[in-house]
Design goal:
The chain is α/β, with parallel strands linked by helices. 34% of the residues lie in helices and 22% in strands. The N and C termini lie far apart (34 Å).
Length: 174
């Protein structure tokens, strides 16, 4: 299975880095073809450019900077995200990866009447998430209603890969 592991933590000695290395090792041992995208190591630029934003509703999204990243996402059958949950959300670099790489014409299509968007990531069969939390599980689940999980499963996958299976592991880090 073609697997893309996306890591979004700035520290190489973090729990996320350890979890990512163990996950990658396990996936390779299971026979997966693993591509690793470490957003911080690659100095991924999370800000959507003016040209990219202007091309969002044009016939062609501007892929001049992102062609390899988009191709990498489109090859993935399994996507594994490893990141810390900060302020009940994504690190900015990961949010920027979603904004820029999950692009119209590639991850989804706009409806002609500006209605519901149409999924395009048919190749993506499964998403697994490993995240660390700075707050107790009950705050994330009972007070905040798991915002990261809702965004990933309902908004992102629901719009771009509706048939994709989803699982998430949230670990308390101290």
């Amino acid at each position: 299975m073609n697997t893309l592991v996306v890591i979004a933590h700035p520290l190489q000695n973090s729990l996320c880095a350890y979890l990512a290395s163990q996950t990658i090792q396990h996936l390779k041992h299971q026979g997966h073809q693993v591509e690793v995208k470490d957003l911080y190591q690659e100095a991924f630029q999370p800000a959507l450019t003016q040209t990219e934003r202007q091309s969002y509703y044009q016939p062609e999204f501007d892929t001049s900077v992102l062609a390899q990243d988009i191709a990498q996402l489109k090859r993935a059958e399994l996507l594994v995200l490893v990141f810390p949950t900060w302020w009940f959300g994504f690190p900015a670099i990961l949010k920027g990866w979603f904004d820029r790489v999950w692009a119209p014409g590639h991850a989804y299509d706009h409806a002609a009447d500006l209605g519901a968007i149409q999924p395009r990531l048919e190749n993506l069969k499964e998403m697994k998430v490993v995240t660390t939390l700075g707050s107790p599980w009950w705050v994330d689940r009972l007070i905040m209603f798991r915002p990261v999980r809702r965004i990933l499963k309902t908004a992102l996958l629901g719009a771009c890969a509706a048939k994709c299976r989803f699982s998430m592991l949230s670990l308390l880090s101290k």
